[in-house]
Amino acid sequence: MNQYGQNMNMKSNIGGNDGALLNKRQRLLNLMKNTKDSYMHGWSSGLPQRTLDSIRGTDSENPPDSNLPLDMDIQFYPTYTTKSEEGYETMVRLAVFSPGNPASRRNRILLSLCKQYLRPANPEAVDDANESKFDDPSTSESTLTAKSSASTLTLNGLHDNGSPAPDELDVLKSRIAGFMIRKIPNLPIIIDLLSREGPGYYDTTLATTNNIGNISLRIRSEFLPTDIRITLDTPTDFPKVITHRFPCNFIKPNGYGVISDIDDTIKHTGVTGDKRSMFRSVFLNDINTWLINDVSRWYKKLKELFQADFFYVSNSPVQTYPTLYQYVSNHFPAGPLFLKQYTGNLLSSIMTSSANRKLGAITQILKDFPNKKFILIGDSGEQDFEAYLSTASQYQEQICGIYIRCCKDSLSDMGLRETEVMHELNDIISEQYLSHKSKETRKKRPPPPVSLLKPDLSPEQQKEIKESRLKPKNRDLPTLPPRPSEVQDLESSVYCTPSTQNDYGTYNQFFDKKADAWRSRVLNGVRTLKSLNKDKPIRVMFFTDPKVPLEDYVNEVQRE
């Protein structure tokens, strides 16, 4: 009989011999203790000795705080394993948290402010007024309680006018749960890289969560790991063991890769719209309504044709990770998600976006895969165009395409001119960069070799050549072309500085500030691309229909 069975029998016999002397309650306590000891022994037999020593605290120099929440857990962010010179390198990212107390002052303020975005009020009246309240320490507990009670009455249906539906409130609570959690800082963690090759193929790393409860590190191993086991190094008197096992994602070092934005690139977010609409899109709308026509089909086609690996990089708060991961997993090729960690005013972090925040993750991906060819996909609602140009300047041999999706109301002050402006921007890129580089490539081709042997000419050919040389040459000069008329349309030739007093007759069309700004941005981008001096140009395109960049990229790959 195995050891587990022997321990069970031994403890059962002891309980039986003393049963006559013990009352019923004592026998029940003994049974519970024996069951717990047997369970812990069976569970621990599946862990390596180094992991067990860490859990028991023998390897921990700084014991963790004894007041650890019983409901804490691990949030793992899947990344990748890649080949390195020494073997393999695995990126590990995780957070340790507890759900937090919904009744705390901070969380009640957050929920109260979020509820105001559910009501059909004037969005401008709620946008700027609420953001400052979240971190305002002067907000009294009594005021908060009164507001919370009023909101409860509204949500219970006592006030039908302007109250959110109960199902909306449930969706809201589930999606803002990430903003209400409590992170566990300075907690020791045991990370085991595992392999299916055998029980001896594992590597253990000890780490500690930082001051905001996160861990981000890279682990080198001589073998290819297939799984990661993460265990919280809790004190010996902690009532349970918290450990989880996650799969490793190995990404090949060569081939094609896609680095894609998320908001308004593969999902409807509305970064360029009003804040209330954006809030409802992120925290209330069904994730299936986020789909953008044909973008999912485009990505799946890239995966099918080129076996491309996908990396999703976004400025969305890391607190929205569970919902975004579910959306990407349901509709797009699998790939790691890299989101941003915001601190301070949480509502402001949702509304704030800067493409430069993504450069760190993009740069790290390009460094990890120097032999991959990447295309960068973003949108016109943020600064993706400039961020991708900056990336192409540093990694010009790895970037072969930049595609920018034109989102609503981002290219022109007049909605009907959005398509016209998009075509104009593509014409600038084509005429001043793509076709220019093609001409340079054709000019650089070496001329055909000139034969050093003179051809044998017949007597007739020699006579014809001699006669042509004796003929007098025509000395008549060509006529001059007609001069342009000096009289021009005054409206098109004269430009007057706009005046706050009178602008009559100075423009032949409305001045489109957004379109003019985009022309300037694209011209600056063309100058940046030209300065790279690449023989083969980087494909750059603005689009609304995903089939157009797909066809462009397929044709480009076929020409290689």
UniProtKB/TrEMBL annotation:
Q: What Gene Ontology biological process does one annotation of this record name?
A: lipid metabolic process
Q: Which GO terms describe its cellular component?
A: actin cortical patch
Residue ranges annotated for the Phosphatidate phosphatase APP1 catalytic domain, each copy included: 256-406
User: Which parts of the sequence are annotated with region: Disordered?
Assistant: 124-147, 436-492
Residue spans with biased composition (Basic and acidic residues)? 461-476
Q: Which domain of life is it from?
A: Eukaryota
Select a single GO molecular function from the record's annotations and give it: phosphatidate phosphatase activity
| Family annotation (PANTHER family) | PHOSPHATIDATE PHOSPHATASE APP1
Q: What is this protein called?
A: Phosphatidate phosphatase APP1 catalytic domain-containing protein
